[in-house]
């Protein structure tokens, strides 16, 4: 990647360990990059209460294995980390750690965390290249005051970043909207735990039969999967409402049974359990599914549904595409685009957010059209090389190489 044999050193400043980034950290650390991840919190490694799921959670301990890392601070979970004293102390520790490491480039995840801002300031002061990765998009509602503030603050801030690791079409449109040249964007799809998905897919027929037998679902039923926190922003009750509309419609001879498996937990769980009780088996609420069970649910399904009010770039949708599933999403999902996970008219159907009638119509059509499901599944399979871990690794290396070629003298 450089004119010398010395590997390029990159320091990634990250708020806390995040499970789906671990495969990328491991992979790039094995190549021509010397990567060191600097965490500012142990959040996720230690057990914590997740308000969205309404339960205690913690990631698997191996998410910090297989790559170089250190904990340079121990900030608590948000919103406590916003305390000025804690933030100032963490920023100082970031500078100290970066001075000690002396990397060729720094990588930050977004611009909202105190660690990201401290790392960008350090890179500018030391004349070191800066990379940024995020999933911001323009789909969500923002007040006029927020839009005005962003118009003033973001162009100079983003102008200090040398290369952007973008996750999709909407993310790139967002950056372009705030003045980032597209030649500074390098597509780096969000990584995910794809090895577990591949393992499940190698025995898809067995998982399909086992999951359906466990849940009492007919072998020939059309099964849609919905994964996520059961909170209002995700709009899981739209699925139940759509199923009621489908149930009330006259049953056509070519229509197979439609069943939705809903995996997750949260404040809307009681309402979804009550809805499932009145849907005669069309909705199966299975609760939180861990990393062992979730791949089997994907393998057992025929399509994936995601009706969220807003979701910048949901990993559950990406996992569905990696499993070759057609996807049905609301128009507020940020991974919609011709080169992204959700490709309208190809592997996906899109409905206006909150329009349960449109969602019901799509589901009813797909349960009657095995040929259409098969065509959409094939399109998801075709999308895999554009969004898998190899694509993420390639984008990372191209971004780092571009920064090294254009870096200013220290």
Task: Output the CATH class name of the largest domain.
Answer: Alpha Beta
Major beta sheet, strand line-up: 5-2-1-6-7-8-9
- Estimate percent helicity: 40-55%
Sketch the major β-sheet: 7 strands, parallel
CATH superfamily of the largest domain: Glycogen Phosphorylase B
Helix and strand succession? EHEEEEHEHEHEHEHHEHEHEHEHEEHHH
- What is the count of DSSP helices, taking H or I runs of 4+ residues? 14
Low-confidence stretches: none
CATH domain fold name of the largest domain: Rossmann fold
Distance between the termini: 19 Å
User: Quaternary status of these chains?
Assistant: single chain
Q: Helix- and strand-based class? A: alpha/beta
Query: How would you state the average pLDDT, rounded?
Result: 91
Shape: elongated
CATH architecture of the largest domain: 3-Layer(aba) Sandwich
Into which percentage range does the β-strand content fall? 15-25%
Domain Glycosyltransferase subfamily 4-like N-terminal: 71-190
Keywords: Glycosyltransferase, Transferase
GO molecular function: hexosyltransferase activity
Pfam family, one: Glyco_trans_4_4
């Amino acid at each position: 990647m450089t004119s010398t044999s010395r590997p390029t050193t990159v320091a990634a400043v990250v708020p806390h360990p995040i499970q789906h980034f671990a495969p990328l950290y491991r992979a790039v650390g094995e190549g021509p990059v010397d990567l060191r991840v600097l965490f500012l919190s142990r959040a996720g490694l230690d057990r914590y209460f997740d308000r969205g799921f309404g339960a205690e959670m913690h990631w698997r301990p191996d998410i910090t294995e297989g790559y170089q890392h250190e904990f340079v601070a121990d900030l608590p979970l948000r919103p406590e980390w916003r305390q000025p004293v804690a933030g100032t102390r963490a920023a100082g520790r970031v500078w100290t750690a970066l001075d000690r490491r002396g990397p060729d480039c720094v990588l930050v995840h977004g611009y909202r965390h105190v660690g990201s801002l401290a790392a960008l300031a350090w890179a500018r002061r030391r004349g070191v290249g800066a990379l940024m990765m995020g999933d911001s998009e323009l789909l969500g509602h923002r007040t006029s005051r927020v839009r005005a503030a962003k118009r003033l603050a973001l162009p100079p801030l983003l102008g200090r970043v040398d290369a952007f690791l973008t996750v999709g079409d909407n993310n790139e449109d967002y950056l372009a909207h705030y003045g980032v040249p597209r030649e500074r964007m390098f597509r780096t799809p969000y990584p995910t735990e794809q090895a577990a998905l591949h393992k499940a897919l190698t025995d898809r027929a067995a998982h399909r039969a086992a999951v359906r037998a466990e849940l009492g679902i007919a072998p020939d039923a059309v099964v849609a999967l919905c994964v996520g926190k059961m909170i209002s922003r995700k709009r899981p009750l739209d699925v139940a409402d759509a199923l009621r509309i489908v149930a009330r419609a006259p049953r056509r001879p070519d229509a197979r049974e439609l069943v939705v498996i809903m995996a997750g937990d949260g404040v809307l769980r009681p309402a979804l359990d009550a809805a499932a009780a009145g849907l005669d088996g069309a909705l199966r609420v299975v609760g939180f599914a861990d990393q062992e069970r979730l791949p089997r649910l994907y393998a057992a399904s025929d399509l994936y549904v995601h009706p969220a009010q807003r979701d910048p770039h949901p990993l559950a949708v990406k996992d569905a595409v990696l499993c070759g599933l057609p996807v049905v999403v609301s128009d507020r999902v940020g991974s919609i685009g011709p080169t992204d996970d959700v490709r309208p008219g190809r592997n996906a159907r899109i409905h206006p957010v909150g329009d349960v009638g449109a969602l019901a119509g799509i589901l009813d059509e797909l349960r009657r059209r095995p040929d259409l499901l098969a065509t959409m599944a094939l399109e998801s399979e075709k999308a895999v090389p554009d969004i898998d871990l190899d694509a993420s690794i390639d984008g990372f290396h191209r971004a780092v190489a571009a920064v090294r070629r254009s870096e200013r003298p220290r």
